[in-house]
Amino acid sequence: MDRVPVPARLRLPPRPRRLHLAACSMAFISVVLAAALAGCASSAPVAYRGLSSADRLTPAADAEAPFQYRAPAADLGGYGKLMIDPVELYTGADGQFGSVSAEDRQIIADYMQQQFRESLGTKHQIVAAPEPGTLRLHLTLTGIERSTPVLSTVTHLMPVGLVVNTGLEASDRNGTFLGSVTYAVELTDASSGQLLYAYVTRQTPDALDVTASFGTLDAAREGVRIGARHLRDKLAEAPAPATAGASPLVARQ
C-alpha cells in the first residue's frame, strides 16, 4: 500500500540539536557540581602531633588558623630582623598529603621558602644567624590537596558553577575541584629559643579564582602566596621594633 504523504505543516520540526547538546551539558555539569559539593568537605587541619609546638596549640575561634598559641609576653612587633629556617616536610602519621607525591611535596616546600622570604623581606631584614631583636620562623608543610584542572576550570566558567562557587566563597569554603595547602607556623626568639607565636592554617584560593584552577598545584601555590601575605600583615600590625641591640622579651623582663 502506498504511503500517504504528510503535509509539511503537520510534520514535527526536527529536534534542535544545539539546544539538546546544551541541555545535556548543563545536566552533566549539574551532576558534577553535586558530586563536588558532596565531597568538598576538605580535611580540616589538626594540631599535628609531630610539631614541636603541638602541646601548646589550642583551638581558636579563627577559621583560617583553628589552632594557635601566643606567649603572654610576646611582642612580635619588637623584632626588626627575621631568620627563616628551611621549610620542613611533615612526616607524621596525621599528615594530610593523601596521594600527593614526594616530588610535588618538595615543589610546594621550595615554593613556600621562596614566597615567605620574599613577602616577609619587605617588612623585616632577613638574616642568616641569630642576632638580638631577631625572630626565627619555622614552617612545616603538613598537607596538600591537588586541584582537578579541567573540571575545576569548567565548573568555574559555566553559569551554574559560578553560582555555586559564589556561595562557596561566601561560606569560606574551597571552590569546586580547587586544591589547598596546610602548614604550621612557629615563631621563636632567635636568641633565647622561646616560642612566641604558633598556629596551624589551611590556605586555598578564593572560590571564584579561576586562575588557580589550571594546574594540579596552582591552588596550593596561591594558598602559599596568600599565607605569606597574611603573616607579613600580622607582623606589620604590631608596634615598631624595640631599641636596637635588645631582645623585646629581655627588655621587658
Automatic annotation (TrEMBL):
Signal peptide range in chain numbering: 1-34
- InterPro entries tied to this protein: DUF3313
List the keywords (alphabetical).
Signal
- Which branch of life, at top level? Bacteria
Q: Extract the Pfam families matched here.
A: DUF3313 (PF11769)
Name of the molecule in the record: DUF3313 domain-containing protein
Q: Please give the organism.
A: Aliidongia dinghuensis
Taxonomy of the source species: Bacteria, Pseudomonadati, Pseudomonadota, Alphaproteobacteria, Rhodospirillales
